[in-house]
Every structure is written in structure tokens, then in C-alpha cells.
## 1
Amino acid sequence: MKVLLSHPERSVDIKGPKKAREVLRELNLVQEAHLVIRGDELITEDELLKDDDLVEIRPVISGGAQGLVTP
Amino acid sequence: MNCTKCKTKAVIDLPRHNAAFCTPCFTTYVQEQVAYAIKHQRMFGPDDRILVAVSGGKDSLALWDILLKRGYKADALYVDLGIPGYSAKSRKKVERFADTVARPHGAALRIHTVQEEEGAGIKELSDLVHRPTCATCGTIKRYQFNKAAVEQEYDVMATGHNLDDEASRLLGNVLHWQDEYLDKQGPTLPASVEGFAKKVKPLYRLSERELAAYAVLNKIDYIVEECPMAKGSKMLLYKEVLNRLETESPGTKHRFYWGFLEKQTQAQPASTSMAEKDQALLHPCKTCGQPTTGEICSYCKMMARARLSSSSARRSS
């Protein structure tokens, strides 16, 4: 499957079928800091991803200095 | 995995609550967390005028969306910092949201452009005053949001700070024993003296992941890209550390921050002690009139330094 990643934007190929949580683990990414999106649908970590799926792993962390007013 | 509430297919699991939700039940969960925060932290009432600080990111746009859908009178202010390759994109996201979602609710978007008002973009300003960009940005935003809220007579200013922002800030303050900042870590800061707007953080019960999920599920088009100026910031490191802990032990972040709030309330009513301290320490800035501890506020000092550096650079060239 093709997996799109951010920061920096890039894509990697991962062999399926694999559960979303296994894909995160393989990429050394923590669940709490990411969303897994298949096509344009948000999915849970136990969802099985197949070779023909287009998957986006979207980071959710933002923020600079302490006291920034608008995260 | 099925939704804990209605047993249909779930779209997100929340280990910290040992729950999973489908789209409608998750949206209800988010709305309920915000409603709880507003009520229990006495943030504002149904008739109050709210100014939301928006950046184009998921949190502030989700906050504006939630408040409008709950029927609040919420306008927004966007500060265009003039960051090359970033500010134009984030501004577009905010303007699009304002046109498609906010205006139909009767809400307005205000824009402050740093290049026009302060005479230079954020990077140039921080170079002129020899301060980190994030610190310069923080000073400008705090000043301009407060100024707009006071001058335009809003009852309260709301920011999109979430559970991760508050927990990581608390971790930073505790690691360095900056106990003087702990007083100001609550989700409601009163308008303690004339010239200070009341400030609230209605998203403090929701994590960044939950807010990103809310934005995706509600088709809010936000800027995913990280601010290029924030790279390597300590806040990002603290968040990363807390997320490692959260993954191993779900609920760590909310137990840390909410536990702190409980202890703070038990120690003394925060709003009273803070108001008393502020009234004893603060007086109007001699240049602009906004409350400050010194003679001149940090914003006016910074702008005076920027003007001085700029004119001496012109003389030497």
C-alpha cells in the first residue's frame, strides 16, 4: 500500500495486509500523535489495510513557544 | 471496532476513555466536553460576545466551528505574521472557513497584518530585536488579541489551547520550577484589571488527536503543515515525551493537567488570588495604556527596539 506522510511530505510503500496499528509501529510512529486516514475516511487502529489502499498518516501535533496564543 | 455508544462501526478509538466512537457519537462527545468546560470553568454565557483567536490550524478552527454550532456569538481575529510560504496559506484557510461556515452564522472575521501595522514581518522583527521568533510572535499575538478584544468590547477572548498544549506547558513550568507561571495555567483567566480581556480555553479537555479527528470528520479544511518557525521548539519536545507516556499509559495527560487544576482549586480560588495579585502588580503602560508590570509594556519595548535597530541599520548602509 502507498502511505502518505507529512513533515516532510513523502510517501512510502508498505506490504499489506496489515492492521493500522502495525503500520504505525513499522514506521515507528505513536498512535497518540497521528490519525490514520484511508481514502478520505478516518479509521481505527484495528482496521485491516490492504495493498491497494491509499493511506494518509496525518500528524496532529502543533505549537511553538510557550504561551503562544493561537495553536 | 464498534462505537461504544451506538454499536455501529467506529471511526476513532480513545484509549484514555477506553472508548471508540462513530462520527455522530464522536461529534457529540466533543461538543459535550466543550459544554462541560464552558459551564464548569464559568467561561461565558449564551449572550456574551466572544472573540476567537484563529490561526488556520485545527484547534482554533474547530473551536470557532463548535462555538458557532452551539449558537454562541463568536467573531474571530487572525494575525497575519508575514511568514514566507506559510502565512498566506494559513490566511487562505481562515478566510475560506469564514466565508463558508462563519458568515452564514452571522459571524465576522477580523484580520491584523503585522507587516502593515508593525512595519515588518515576524522574522525581520525578531532579527531586529534579537529574540527568538516564537517569543516575538507570542508577544505580538498576546498584545493584539487583547487590544482587539478590549477595544471592540468583546466580553471574552477564546483560544484553541487543547489538553496537549496545557499539559506540555505545565510540564515545562514544573521542570524549570517556574511557579510564578502556574497561576496563569487555568482555563479561565479573569479580566483582573482594566485593559485586560477575560481569556478562556474551552478545548482544554480535548487532546490534539481528538481535535484533528473532529476537523477531519467535520470537513474543516485546516493547515496541516507545521509553522516553519516552531521547528525544534521545547514545546514540541514536551508534547512528544507526553505522547510516549500516553501511549504506554492512557490517561496520563489528562490526569496530569486536570489533577493540577484540582489541586489549584483546593489551594485557593484561582480567580480571586490572580485578580488580587494583578491589581497589586499591574498599571497602565506609559506608551499604549495596556496593563504591564513595568513602566513600558513588553510589546512597546520590543517595537521601540525594532525602530531603533532599523534606523541605525539605515544610517550605516
## 2
Amino acid sequence: MTVFLIRRIGQTMITLLVMSVLVFVGIFMVGNPIDILIDPAATPLEREQTIQAFGLDRPVLEQYWSFLTSALSGDLGNSFLFNQPALDLILNRLPATLELAFSALFIALVLGIPLGIVAGLNPKSPLARFIMGFSILGFSLPTFWIGLIMIMAFSVFLGWLPSSGRGDTVDVLGVELSIFTLDGLSHLLLPALNLALFKISLVIRLTRAGVMECLQMDYVRFARAKGLSETRIVSLHVLKNTLIPLITVLGIELGSLIAFAVVTETIFAWPGMGKLIIDAIAVLDRPLIVAYLLITVVMFSLINLVVDILYSAVDPRVRFGDEGE
Amino acid sequence: MVAPASMPTLEVEGLETRFITRRGPVPAIRDISLTVNKGEIVGLVGESGSGKSVTGLSIMGLIEAPGEVSAGKVLLNGEDLRKVSRRRLRQLRGDRIAMVFQDPMMTLNPVLRIRTQMVEAIHAHDQSVGAEAARQRCRDALAQVGIPSPEERLDAYPHQFSGGMRQRVAIAIALLNRPDLIIADEPTTALDVTIQAQILAVVQSLCREHGTALIWITHDLSVVAGLAERIYVMYGGCVVEQGGVDAVLDRPLHPYTDGLIRSVPWHNEPGRPLNQIRGMVPPLDRMPKGCRFWPRCDRATEGCRAPVALDEIRTGQRARCIHPLVESR
Amino acid sequence: MTDAALILPEEDDLPPPPPPRSPGRELLIELFRDKLALTGILIVWVLAVLAFLAPLIAPQDPYDLMQIDFMDSRLPPGAESMTGMTFWLGTDDQGRDLFSAILYGLRTSIEVGILSAAIALVIGASIGLVSAYAGGRTDALLMRIVDLQLSFPAILIALILLAILGQGVDKIIIALVVTQWAYYARTVRGSALVERRRAYVDAARCQALPKRRIIFGHILPNCLPPLIVVATMRVAYAIMLEATLSFLGIGLPVTEPSLGLLISNGYTYLLSGDYWISVFPGIALVLLIIGINLIGDTLRDLLNPRLRR
């Protein structure tokens, strides 16, 4: 197990390194490197000074090295838009995005898994067909459009829920979270639901496929031959086998949710990283873009790492290896 | 041979199972009748596609859509398994009648411990057994099938066992509640020959010891020769011959049985071409009407195209053939 | 042997064999039989025809600045222009006829979706085949890259690329290709590996067929089923991704017709009641995507070997 851990962490480090090179190459080499760190509105004198200060006239490898070292120390330059350290800006908005993403994941699982099980147990029943039809709708409806419709329906026509912004927050371990306040929840519900919709369909389908596959397995037949009740067969034998592969998917899905939050945040004016990055791309605020990318890459790698560890802890075949005989 | 003094443990009459395909219902087995007496070991022999596995599953009631058991009676100790409630069927399965499957790899759930899968078989039928008592029974069962260090093995996962061990576990589970009948569907086909011999020995001795009746389904004649008392030979979804194992194997009546026996390679003299039954088993939806075997039979006549009954041609031996091999060899 | 005459089976004794059909034809028949898939095919067909006939049937070319009049902006559905043309679905804030704009937008969506999927498929499938056939280190390396690519969400990759490359139809297509190729690579590599181990490849090799013939003539055709499913789903996803990016303002430039842009234009007017600017293009987009997904869904069920019994 420890060997596995060390190996995985090593892989993560390498991935991060590779990604940093890619980001560097992408942002700093493509296009005029001069314009990257210098505000387009700067005077020629300021440009000269900045070129000197940032060493843009130095060889590429040196530039990369200084990029890397300053990144590791937390300095990624100042955002053009806000004239504040880019990294700090991103980090400030991170909790809001994470709150949204995790809530969406939670909703997707809580709704998706039971529906998937129902659809998988009796695939030909009208209920199952309905659930599957609904799931097609789920991943066919573009997040941004359904968000608009949601706002129209729930905020404008029905007036039940607020249409934008984040609610009141509560300080939990130094992080501001809105999920613990009623006002916060009412602001969180629509965006989280919006973001979750696409994923709910995925979870339903995966669970259904998993359940259907499990039911055809010999061990289910054997369990029936033992005289076990259907309830036990489904809730233990089938469920455990279905959920284990779902864990790996969760990791990727969480990352995808964090990325897709960009859209939801734009529509619902949710103050997360996503909204920031869209504005940044529009004006080519490179320090901000770089900061966002690096933070995202680090997060994804961490998520993947955690998911791998979780998976190996849960699947006995991986945990105990092949001891055989 | 044990004279059946009381009601037979299993009596199957006219069992028919079919599969609903896009082109209509296709029968997999037809007019299957078997009897297994208390403590008897019976062999069900046939090649792939003969319907022997389907028969076993049909008896247990484990046939699922698109298949269905469409006719017949399955009397377990007098109770018709086809007519009882689902609840009663569940009570009987694993308790009075048990099954062992062919592939030991997937019979056991890979993500659950052995002990979980064994204890649940006990608790499904008797909730009152305490945890420690159940564990004890499982330990003993594992020891009985010849698994060393049963205590540690209980906490292990299936993938930590070899194929032969897994099959032993499956047998142990089948025997846990001392059923009246075990149906073993080709349990050793996927295993090495030496392991096969060990498992056969274990099963035989345990069945004798507990008085458990056994239906051993296989395509391997050599296995039934040493194990069973009576055998049923299946072809094309029907029983084509049945009788005492020695009688059927030494003096087969049905041409198919004869062909099967001759096909075993070691019957052949070295250097001579291998015996084979010409032709191939037709697919289920293209079965000939009448005798199933006639297109491949050297003795076929016009009369073979009509349905043939399973007649008692010699005492205690039946064959579904109008040209049985009654001359002695 | 008895003296009974030897009889051989005659054809009329056995039930008649079913007429042989190629797997492709079987598939199409099954596909048309499924109601959902049929609906999908119908929807896509209608929309595609409308879209490609756009220049002919649209009352107005909404991206020709000479044809639109700012005075016509934000007219409700059914209103008439100064010139007597009826705006069936209303106009947007620039005075564009929404019906025409939607037709042109659909055209762009379909073109971009299919083009990017096709390019990605060729690239991805080639890489997948090479990877599977080469095996060993090459395979391991290529698949690591594929895994890395797949562990990052498509929208993120698209965002990064568009940030670097800027705006434009070709840049969007590049971005969509980059987000997709890995799916094709992985699918094809998976199928190719399975096929490679099959007996018929050994048989072909025994016949000393050239490698290229084995790969393209034998292995590739058998990789097609999952590939078709993946391709269909990816086209739908590409269309949605493009619309999303355009909506966010980093996709297609404002001068190109795009459903996403239309929707984003109308966003500001939603709350004031001029719903049609966002809703109608949205409906068109949703119908297109649902149609494709319905087809893809049924294809997946039909082509899935594991769910068949």
C-alpha cells in the first residue's frame, strides 16, 4: 500500500511539472511574450522597465525557471484588471466555486444513484424507460440554457428563489461557506441544481449499466440459489460492485464540475473562480489566466490522487493484490 | 443399488423450457423427466447445447427472461417447485435444494469476504443462529471440503483463492444447510484434471456421509463413470437414454450414446482415425422434427422423422430410439 | 448396421433458415424500429435539411449588415417589418430575423460539430490503432497522454486553447478537436487490442498479409461499432460545447452565426419579458442535441455486446 502511495504521489508530481511546462509554453511563448506581463496601456518606459524586471530578454530556460520558482512561492504577477496579486484573487474565489461544485456532486449522487438502481433492476418497465428518457434530456440540455429557463421559471415567474449571487456566509475554519445559512442555501439551490443536471444523467446511466451488468453475473445467480432475498442481493451484492467503479468516475466528474462551474457562475452571478476567468480571457489578463490554470491543475491532480487512493482502499482486489495460492 | 423405499427426493415430469426470441419461442428442453432418490448420485450427460445446464437451472427455478419454464412438474419431496410461492421457493433454495455452478471465478462475489457469503447462506434460512455459532459452522464446512487453515480463510476475499479452492468453497456453501439435493452444473469442467479428481472425491464422500442426493451435470463420460449410479443422456434438449451407469456405458441402446462413448479418444487404437459422430449439433431453432439425432445417425429411416417416445427397451434402461442397439457387442 | 436404408436429411424437413443480412443492414433495421431513435432521426433530419437549405429558405441573411435594420430590433414574434416581411419568431436586439438567424446558426452548429468530430476521429483513431498495434512502450506512453488529456474537462481545455489562440471559427474547431481526439483514441485502441488477440488475426498473419492490410482491412472494421457510438455522442457534445463557449463570449466571433451568441444576446432581455430572443434559439439547439443523443443512445444499446444475451 505504501509503495502504491509513493508511486502515485510521484506520478502526480511529474504530472504537475509537465503541466507547468505546458502552461508556460502556452502562455508565455505563444504570442508576444512582451505583452504577457505588461499592461497593454503601459508607456514605452514602463515597458522597458518591466522587461528588465521580468527578465524577458533572458534565455527561455531561465525564464521558465524564474516562472517556476516564483509560482512556487506564490507570486504570479498582478492582474491587469484588478491590479492585485493574481494568485490571491483566484484563491479568494476558490471556496465559492468548490462549494458550488461539491453541492452539485452531492445532488447528482443523491438523486442519480437511486434512480439508476431503479432503472437497472427493471430495465423494461415504464418507470425505467421514463428515467432513461429523462436522463437523455439531462445531458442534452445545455447547462447555460437550462440555467436561463430555471431563472425565468423559479425567480421571475414563481419568485421562489433568488436569481443571482451568493447568500450569507458563515466562517468555517477560516473559509467562508454559505451552505450553513438558510439564505445561503436558497441562493445555492438553483445554481447547484443547474450544474448537477448534466451529471445526474451520467450517474443514472452509469449506475443503471452497472446494476444491469451485475445482475447477469454468476454470483447473483449463486446468491439466488442460496435463497437470499432480492433486497439483500441488490443492496449488498449488486450495490457494492456497482459503486466501486463509480468512485473513479467521481474524481473526473468533480473536476468537470469545477470547470463547468464557469457557465453556471456566469449565469447566476455566483462569485467564484469561473466568472473571473471568463472576464480574464476576454481581456487577456494573462497573470490571472495563469493563476487559474495552475490552481486548477493542482486541484485536479490532487483530486485524482485522492480518488485513486480511495478506490484502492475500497476494492479488495486492489487492496490485497493477487495473493492467490 | 439403493432400493427406493420412500418418496423420491426429486421427481421431474415433462419439464419444458423455452426462450422467447425475436423469431418466436424456441424450446431449449422438452419432455424432460427424471427421478432422483434419497441419497442417490445421478449423472446428467450431454454435449454443449444439449440442454443439460438449462435443465439444472429450470429445476432450481433460476431461468430468467427471455427464458421461461413453460411446462412440467418439479417435485421436491413431493412439493411442486413450479407452483409454490416465491417466498417458499426462496426458503427451499439453499436449504433443501442447492446448486453449484461451473465457473468458480464468478460464483463468488469478488468484493465480499468469504465469511460474509457463507454466513448469509445460513442466516437466510435460520435467523436464530448466533454469529459465533454461524462462524463455527462455516469453519467446519470449509474444513470438510479440505481447505487448510479455515479460520484465516474465512476473512479472505475470493480472488485470494485458486480456482479449485473457490469451487470447494462453493460446495461448502451448498452443503451448509444439509440440503436434500445438490445440483452440480459442470463444477469441475474449468479445473485441472488433478484438482477435478480431488473435488469429485470430496463431493462423493460428503454426499454419502450426509445422505444428500446429487445430480452431476457434465459432458465428460469418464467423470460419471466413476461417480454416478444412474445416468441420463441428453441430446438436442431431450433425454435420449437413461439407466444404470454400468448398463448404459457398457451396452448403450441409443446410437448417440454409442457414438459418444466411442468418441472418447482413448477408446481409439493408436494410428487409426479418431471416431466421430458426423455432422454438428443443429442450433436450437433448427432442430429436426421427430428424433433429434436422425440427421447424424447411420441407422436412420423414414420412421425417425416422427416423434419418438422414451421406451423401456431393457429392464431399467430406456432409450428414445426406434432402432436401438440391442445386439450385444 | 441394420438393413434400414440410409436416409440423408432433406431441406424441407428442417425449419427454413432465416434470410442472411449483413450486420450493417441489421443495425439499420433495428435502429429504425426503435421509437426513440426514430424520433431522433426525424428531428435531426428535419433540422439538418432546414439548416442546409438556409440560404434558400431564410427570408433574410441575418449576417449581411445591409439587410438588417436597427429599427426592427426586439420585435415580438409575428411582427412585420417596414418592408412587409413577417418576423415569424421575432427579432433580436440588432433587428435580425430570428427565424433566419436560427437557421444559419443551426448550419454553423452542425458544420462545426461534424467537422471537428470527423477530424478528431481520424486523428484519434489513427493514434489508437498505432498504439494498439505497436504495444509496449509506445502504447504505454500514448495511453498516458490520452489519460492525462481525459482527466481534464473538455471545457477547461477549450478555455485554455481559446485563451491562447484567440477567436475564430478555425480556432474553435481546433479546440473542439483537441478536446475530443482522446475519446476516439482510447475507444479504438481498446477494440483493436481485443481484436488483435482474436484468432482471425493470427490466421491472417499466418497468411502473411501485410500489416497495413491487417490493420485497416480486418481490425478496423471490427472497431467500428463502439466508434460509431462514441462519434455520435461526441458530435452532440461538440455542438453543445461550441454553443456554450459562444454564449460565454469566447467562442465564435460576433460576425458568425451561432445559436450560443443569439442566446447570450437575449439573456439581458429575458428579465424584461422579451423572452423570444433567447428561448427560440435555445429550443432549436436543444432539439438538435436531443435528436442526436436519441440516435446515439439507441445505437449504444444496440451495439453493446455485453447487454445482449
